[in-house]
Design a protein that fits this description.
Layout: H1 3-27, E1 30-34, E2 37-40, H2 41-53, H3 60-81, H4 87-99, H5 105-113, H6 119-140, H7 148-158, E3 164-174, H8 180-191, H9 196-206, E4 221-222, H10 231-235, E5 246-248, E6 251-262, E7 269-281, H11 286-298, H12 304-309, E8 317-322, H13 329-336, E9 343-349, E10 352-364, H14 371-397, E11 400-401
Length: 402
């Protein structure tokens, strides 16, 4: 090859390689520095994708920058304190994080990979934040205490766990014996969803409840309105998470948490629920549904049902006052949706449509409050406040450059 040709070949190769090299350089170039330590454009892009995978609302780019700057500050403080997670501890923390999505670590990482999130991105996120949590406990735990008076004051303000209100979406999939296995399989798939839009789409297709027309969305309701056996399960959810399938009579229930808040005024615990059920023959027929709608137009209170049932066999109308824990789960869920003197006809049994009416809920002063749980909650709040102060101090002293 002549010298001139060699020069041209080298020039061409350089020109072709330049855009790739420039792109790579831009991707790994510093986007912001924190005390001389760089956050790269690649890290920002990966964190934004991770936040998107977590269904984080808002400006993901801005939130990614904020989190990564704070994590650089945390990491620098952890290094000064000589605190690092062992590899075993890190793997355990990552597995625990994945478990919140009801997935194994490998399955969780595979799901993130489909959204463009690298394993190292989750690894870095968990490493810093798990280490920071342990550091805060070690640094401030011995100096933070919660007195009995503080627990009493917290209970007076909130009424204990009964003060929690939930914003849920619901699905109930009909599961008569011939379709039970298929219904459970569909419910298992839905329980893995983390998107409210995807859950609502499923509700419109498979739910047997009237709420399906609005994607299963329910209004704010007190935790105490739901069956006591579900309280722990519902409180364990993060926004966007879905419960495991909940078997009920001839059906499978699922709930997705959209939001949680402290009630403006804590409701009292419920001691007794008074309800009535009027049996209408022909469940699943247009005639039965029309009869239920007709009765709903006639009655304003549970007492009015006695007039509807006059002259009929006594077993057609059942009225009971029971403790919430004594209710079958499907009936407890149905009554949770109702206000006093409100009715529904979503339940059926043995070919009979059940016109169900909530008569009243009888409150009592809360008993048996778990004071240790309140103590731990207050302790966590105090440690979180100390952590926020420390992070603000670190940020104020830091050199942060764009």
């Amino acid at each position: 090859m002549r010298a001139f040709d060699v020069v041209k070949a080298v020039a061409l190769a350089t020109a072709l390689a330049a855009p790739v090299g420039a792109a790579a350089q831009g991707l790994f170039a510093p986007a912001v520095t924190v005390n001389g330590s760089a956050v790269t454009n690649y890290e920002l892009d990966q964190r934004a994708k991770l936040l998107a995978a977590f269904n984080t609302p808002g400006d993901l780019g801005a939130e990614a920058r904020k989190q990564l700057v704070e994590e650089k500050l945390k990491l620098q403080e952890l290094n000064r304190a000589g605190m690092q997670l062992t590899e075993e501890g890190l793997e355990a923390a990552m597995a625990e994080f994945a478990q919140r999505a009801n997935l194994s670590l490998d399955a969780f990482l595979a799901q993130l990979a489909t959204q463009g999130v690298a394993r190292e991105t989750l690894r870095d996120f968990v490493r810093v934040n798990a280490s920071w949590r342990d550091y805060i406990r070690r640094r401030y735990g011995s100096g933070v205490d919660v007195s009995e008076a503080e627990i009493d004051a917290a209970l007076a303000r909130t009424g204990g766990p009964e003060s929690v209100e939930l914003l849920l979406s619901e699905i109930i999939i009909p599961a008569p014996p011939p379709r039970a296995a298929a219904a459970m399989a569909r419910a298992e798939a839905i329980s893995k969803l983390r998107s409210t839009a995807a859950f609502e789409a499923e509700a419109r297709v498979v739910s047997a409840l009237p709420s399906r027309t609005q994607g299963g969305r329910l209004d704010w309701a007190a935790l105490s309105d739901y069956p006591a056996g579900l309280h722990g399960l519902l409180l364990s959810l993060e926004p966007g998470e879905v419960t495991p399938p909940i078997p009920i009579r001839n059906g499978v229930a699922l709930f997705q948490l959209r939001d949680i808040r402290e009630a403006p005024q804590a409701p009292a615990a419920i001691a007794e629920i008074d309800y009535a059920q009027f049996a209408i023959p022909g469940a699943g027929t247009a005639q039965a549904l029309a009869e239920a709608a007709r009765i709903d137009g006639l009655v304003d209170t549970c007492d009015d049902l006695y007039g509807v049932a006059k002259g009929l066999p006594e077993e057609r109308l059942v009225r009971q006052s029971v403790a919430p824990a004594s209710l079958p789960q499907d009936l407890g869920l149905e009554l949770a949706r109702l206000d006093p003197d409100e009715a529904s006809w979503n339940l059926s049994q043995d070919g009979t449509l059940l016109f169900t009416m909530l008569c009243s809920r009888t409150p009592v002063a809360a008993e048996g409050v778990d004071r240790e749980a309140v103590r731990n909650q207050l302790l966590s709040q105090k440690l979180s406040a100390r952590a926020d102060i420390l992070l603000a101090e670190l940020r104020a002293q830091a050199r942060i450059g764009q």
